[in-house]
Amino acid sequence: MQRMIHGALSALCVIFLAGALCGCLDHEQTVVFNNDGSVIVSFLYIFPENQRQTLENAQAVIDQWQGQGDQDNRVPGINSFLNEEAVKSYFNARADIELRHYKQTTDNGFCRVQIIVLGRDAASAINSGIFGAFQLKQENGLTTFSAELPSTPARWDQQRLAQLRTLLANTQLKLSVTTPAPIRHCSRDRHDKNSATWSFTAQPSTDRPDSADLFAPPPAMSVSW
């Protein structure tokens, strides 16, 4: 989960590592704002079942990058979403947030992990950072949700980017937002009346017109209602 992946490495770097190690990692996050002021955030991860151990071992690589003894900056664990008890502990630590659903299934060689979380107070839950680099604010009669993806590290040259694009060819990221009222403003031109979706891929092409470049994400994704 995005905020279970923080510290010295950016969330994007950890996703790159996971995708490179297991060859394929799809991550979909859905944010649904309700009329009663609550929010439901869902996470969906899909990866090859035969790469489970590789994905779980990614933490050891992260530890080596950061230094085993630096506990303040240690990434808590890329494999946290595979551990139901860790997920419960992470979300249920806050009184206003509740893990509503956790399920792992395997079908046709792929593992799916679905997590559904309720935030009783949307503004408090979103602005706490527990779900990711998100913000929710009210201004001039509008409620605005915004999200950011970290930029690609400047030290990565074109050769490194080309290698990563090949490694992450099958990795997909998606963020979907549903609003309780019609959308008034949105940073994405194409959206529905009450929902907007941003998709990212490491290999953008004309075959994927709705997917932006994972290595060059927009400065911010926002939707107001």
From TrEMBL:
Record keywords, A-Z: Signal
Bias type Polar residues, positions: 195-206
Region (Disordered): 184-225
Signal peptide from the UniProt entry: 1-20
Domain of life: Bacteria
Pro residues bias (residue ranges): 216-225
Protein's UniProt keywords contain Cytoplasm: no
Record's protein name: Lipoprotein
Organism: Oligosphaera ethanolica
